[in-house]
Amino acid sequence: MRENIKCNKTFDKKEIRSLIEWFLNNYGGIRTIKLLDKLKALGFKQASIAGISLGIDDLKIPETKKILFKNTEKDLNKIEIKAKNGRINSLNRLDKITETWNRTNELLKDEVIKNLRQTDLLNPVYMMTFSGARGNISQIKQLIGMRGLMSDSQGEIINLPIKSNLKEGLKIPEYFISCYGARKGLVDTAIKTANSGYLTRRLIYAAQSLIVKKNDCKSKYNKLLLSLKKDKKYYKILQEKILGRVIARDIYDKRKNKVIASAGQDICQYTLKRISIYKKIYIRSPLTCKLNTGICQLCYGWNLANGRMVELGESIGILAAQSIGEPGTQLTMRTFHTGGVFAGEVAETIIAPHSGNIKYNSFSKGREIETKYREKAFFTLEEKKLTITDGKTQKSVIYIPCYSIIFSKNNEEVSNRQILAQLCDWQELKGKKKKKELREIKEIKTKISGQVYFDTINKKEENGIIWIINGNILTNKILYKNRIKKNYIIKHIFLETKNENYKQINIINNDSKTQRIQKNYLSHKELKKLKEFNIDNKLKSKIYCVNKVTNRKKEFLTNKKLLTKSLKIRENLPKIGEFVYKNKIIGRRFVNKYPLQVIEIKKDHLKVQKANPTTISKNCQINIKNNSLTKKNKTIFYTHHQKQKTEDIVQGLPKIEELLEAKKTSNFRSISNNPHEKLKKLFTCFEKKYSNEIAVRKSIDRIQKLLVEKIQSVYKTQGVNICDKHMEIIIKQMTSKVIILEAGDSNLINGETIEINKIEKINYKLETKVKYEPIIIGISKISLSNQSFISEASFQETTSVLTKSAIEGKIDWLCGLKENLILGNLIPVGTGYKMQKTL
Fold first, then answer.
1. 3-state helix, strand, coil in the chain (%, to 5)
2. For position 466, what pLDDT does the model report?
3. How many alpha carbons lie under 13 Å from residue 770 in its C-beta half-sphere?
4. What is the pLDDT of residue 682?
5. Distance CA 536, CA 538 (A)
């Protein structure tokens, strides 16, 4: 007798699922039912004994929250200094704020889990969440961590994070910010669930007639899968793709000189382990099934419900439509529960376990780099050992993997929970893996008014700085009445006390070589008008400089303040006209609080004026001219900016619909590289090399693969796994027809659409072959171009469908489910021997 197998480990939802799957594969369905009954009884019994309840004291806030916030504020202060110095522009600053708070939120989530795990394993909150029974970590994070960044009604991020959690309670501004997310959740639950339901309905109508009709269609076409990697993650992906499929070509081992797996064999767990080491695996797919109506057993493979070969009469079209539509409905509900909290990708980081001195070999493989936020870091090309020592009490050793960015310098003091390094994806670095970016054109505006100054700027590199020299812009007609003509520059406006009614303005003629001073007087009434432009007639010592006169716009630039900085030691002084950044020591006497431009250097003092720098982005479009005047909030340049949006199904559903409907336009704009354009390009390319039939098949194969990948990528971002098989059935319907270009010897008409399998069979018997081109049809159009006019009429456009069918004298052969259901007949599906005989 076999001994009882003992498993001394925690069985959460995932482990129980694996146990049931293993038991089903090894012991069959009848014994599995008995096991499930026993598990159910055990669960109810233990739940009753435990009597788990939830109280406010069970929500334990980690003490490290304050430390993480302190480190975050320190990082953000550095970014603010960089932004004021013009090292990064406003968009990069906002991105950094978002990235930093999002990373802090993730680190705090890890601290919450760590705190619960280390202090109280029997905490009801911990048990409920991590067993998979109730709730998820996103909700627990909001209860005892921080709510974090919120998204608004459009899904874009509000850059002010909610630092409080729900146990601590929200402050008034935080409450109002969180209202955006709450409202979004309610709206999404109401509206988007209906959209998801309509998508499911269209999918059902598109695929309802797909039934397993025959054992084998004898298709010569197949699907190729490449098995290049041998790591655990890729093996799992490969397992999902090919488990339960049928092998199309023999897999031959050249070394052992024998067949490992033969064509027509289904792939089980045992076969998968043997064939996963080979690079090329050819499998049968519903996409290439040759039957005119329905799909054959071998092209479909296993019925995923029971792990056996699909039986004849199985309604696989309905099954596929439900598998794709159902997660959409579920995920729209989930947005309500999370409450509009921002969820985006965060790079994996390594933090210091305690404060101390950090040491590592900085002369090994790697190089010093500068991030897009102008942060100096070390990029390592090999695994690196980091040692953190805090006197004699604590010592920690951390191993940093290769292709990581280390932010801390060698022999530097680091604080507790400080970010030491960030892990990078090597495929992204090498350009093999392209990061999906949603880009839009953004405008950068100036915060102050003044004169524009910039050197020669290279638009392809991020190295140019545009300076705005602070000043007021005057547009006053009075100055023009007083004989101030073209190219005259007002150097000083000052007061004289001799005459109370008139004030003198000295004007220098800039055109003539010998500069001539022309005196103009303004009356007391005119001075009142000038007061509106910050000209003060009380303070005698105040000096106003006018740098530029623009005749067309009639604009004058006046500087409010010229600052004087006293000097004691004349070392490392800047030159006249040079710009000085914030926090730079001048003459070892003072640290300037903001960026400046030096105007005059004397023995004991330095004259400076305020300036505002902005770094230009790569490939930007500059909107202003050098030395021109600009007003506050005027656009300096336009730049391409990567949009950050919360990744939820509300953004995903329109994308899925766009792909399944094969849309050419969206919001009155044509979609670039839409499937129709891609298919046309592929076909014209293949037509030059191959015959018409092969060119059509190859181009359809490429576009089918692309559509499967794109739809799957949307669901995978939500953590939803849908078998490729279900996608392939819907996409088969979308790509199953072609349009006739030249009729040849057939009775077909140019421009007519026909199934690809039918036309290939017709062409086989003709001397002059029919020429045709592949097309993609959206799921709504498929439902309205069905063989059955009864099914079409029950979907939409009932009057036009019935009228058209009556004029054409159409016959409905009652092949599908819908038409038989409407007439009250038995539907042509069902499994077993009798069904096999009927088919």
1. 40, 20, 40
2. 85
3. 26
4. 93
5. 6
- When comparing pLDDT for 316 and 229, which is higher? 316
Nearest to 711 by CA among 199, 188, 195: 199
Contacts of residue 457, defined as CB under 8 A and 6 or more positions apart, other chains included, come to: 463, 464, 466, 616, 622
What pLDDT does 206 receive? 92
**Do the Cβ atoms of 640 and 462 come closer than 8 Å?**
no
Q: What is the pLDDT of residues 424-473, one digit of tens each?
A: 765 555 544 555 555 677 788 888 888 888 765 655 555 678 888 877 76
Contact 296, 216 (CB under 8 A): yes
pLDDT score at 832: 58
Residues forming beta bridges with residue 450, ordered by sequence position: 470, 630
Cα 585 to Cα 59, 78, 563, 565, 611: the distances in Å are: 50, 17, 16, 12, 17
**What single DSSP character describes residue 255?**
T
Which of the four CATH numbers 1.10.10.10, 3.40.50.150, 2.40.50.100, 3.40.47.40 does domain 349-429 have?
2.40.50.100
CA dihedral 294, 299, 302, 308 (to 10 degrees): 90
Q: Taking the domains of the chain in order of start, what are their residue ranges?
A: 1-51, 211-314, 349-429, 443-470+562-641, 472-559
398-407, 540-549, 692-701, range with greatest mean pLDDT:
692-701
Angle between the 193-207 and 649-660 helix axes, to the nearest 10 degrees? 30
Q: What is this structure's pTM? A: 0.74
Q: How far apart are CA 403 and CA 461, in angstroms?
A: 24
C-alpha pair distances (Å), 310 with each of 89, 298, 671, 831: 59, 9, 39, 9
Q: What is the CA radius of gyration of the chain?
A: 36
Least trusted range by pLDDT, from 627-631, 658-662, 769-773 = 627-631
* DSSP assignments along 231-253, one per residue: SHHHHHHHHHHHTT-BBSS-EEE
**Residue 346: is it exposed, middle or buried by C-beta count within 10 angstroms (0-12/13-18/19+)?**
middle
Q: Degrees (nearest 5) of the Cα angle 317, 322, 326?
A: 165
Give the pLDDT band of residue 551 (cuts 50, 70, 90): very low
C-alpha 255/C-alpha 263 separation (Å) is 20
CB 562 within 8 Å of CB 545: yes
CA atoms of 774 and 105, how far apart (whole Å)? 49
Instruction: Look at residue 596 and give its three-state secondary structure.
Output: strand
**What number of residues does the chain have?**
839
Of the candidates 642, 84, 151, the one whose C-alpha atom is nearest the C-alpha of residue 161 is 151
The Cα 448–Cα 351 span in angstroms is 39
Query: 29-64, pLDDT tens digit by residue?
Result: 899 999 999 999 999 999 899 888 888 999 999 999
- With cut-offs at 50, 70 and 90, classify the pLDDT of residue 234: confident
| Cα-Cα end-to-end distance for the chain | 46
Cα separation, 122 vs 143, in Å, equals: 18
Which amino acid, one-letter code, is at 403? Y
Paired with 546 in beta bridges are 558
DSSP 481-535: HTT--TTEEEEEE---SS-SSEEEEEEEESSSSS--EEEEEEEHHHHHHHHTTT-
Residue 482 pLDDT = 42
